[in-house]
UniProtKB/TrEMBL annotation:
GO cellular component: cytosol
Naturally occurring in which organism (per UniProt): Labilibaculum filiforme
The protein's name: UPF0246 protein BZG02_04530
Pfam families: H2O2_YaaD
UniProt cross-references to InterPro entries, sorted A to Z: YaaA
Protein family membership: Belongs to the UPF0246 family.
Biological process terms in GO annotation: response to hydroperoxide
Species classification: Bacteria, Pseudomonadati, Bacteroidota, Bacteroidia, Marinilabiliales
Domain of life: Bacteria
Length: 256
């Protein structure tokens, strides 16, 4: 099975990488084109487009202007180790073995506004560019139009290369929208994580994001290929809930 997840806004380029394994991103030509266009934005433009503070806008203005290829281990870091949001807290890749990293190269992809699709060990440089932001480019009104069907084709190529029969959607809606579901050459399964609150099970964003990371780790470390085996997921107190689950939407609940 092939897993897709979202990137994170929080980054860590300070701590040393725990693995020497690395690979090159597939869409750097497109990334260069985007960077060229993003460099036309002033700090205020970035703040308004991304809905961020002047300080954060200044930081990302500088990132766009410092971004340069070729990527090396000196000026870049592997994506799975550079992202530091809630999903990545769940994955906890700093504790992976080399075998886990190699396994993840086959069955994990990270969707990205700047890089399109990343393998976990693809080198990246610091950026912030959320897929859902309406940033005009030479290819359209937003990043979905910029990437077109490139992301879907890349996902299908990865599915075929490793003979994956299932696409496990652990990405946010914002990022999964970059994939044309009708064209995916695999069965799409979307695990859902709910916590008990005020007497009923609800999706609580912070917990659900971490759980998506935990599920990603569970699949990679257990080398799971059969969706039925997802039901054994029991990390952090979550358990498969057959009553709430649908055929392609297994639900995992947790009572506090």
């Amino acid at each position: 099975m092939l897993i897709v997840i979202s990137p994170a806004k929080t980054l860590d380029f300070e701590s040393p990488a725990v693995s020497d394994i690395y690979s090159d991103a597939s869409f750097l030509k497109e990334s260069r084109l985007l960077i060229k266009e993003l460099r036309n934005l002033k700090v205020d433009d970035i703040a308004n487009l991304m809905g961020i503070s002047a300080n954060l806008a200044q930081l990302n203005f500088e990132r766009f202007h410092m971004w340069s290829t070729p990527f090396t281990k000196e000026n870049s870091k592997q994506a799975l180790l550079a992202f530091k949001g809630d999903v990545y807290t769940g994955i906890n890749a700093s504790t992976f073995s080399d075998g886990d990293f190699i396994q993840s190269q086959s069955n994990l992809r990270i969707l990205s506004g700047l890089y399109g699709v990343l393998k976990p060990m693809d080198l990246i440089q610091a950026y912030r560019l959320e897929m859902g932001k309406k940033i005009k480019t030479s290819r359209g009104e937003n990043l979905y139009q910029f990437w077109g069907d490139s992301i879907t084709k890349s996902i299908n190529k990865s599915l075929k290369a490793s003979n994956h029969k299932h696409l496990i959607n652990l990405a946010s809606n914002e990022y999964f929208k970059s994939i044309d579901k009708k064209k995916v050459q695999a069965e799409i399964i979307t695990p859902v994580f709910k916590d008990l609150k005020n007497g009923e099970y609800k999706i609580i964003s912070f917990f659900a994001k971490k759980a998506r990371g935990l599920m990603t780790r569970f699949i990679i470390q257990n080398k799971i290929t059969d969706p039925e085996d997802l039901k054994a997921f029991d990390l952090d107190g979550y358990m498969y809930n057959s009553m709430l689950s649908k055929e392609r939407e297994p639900v995992f609940t947790r009572d506090h």
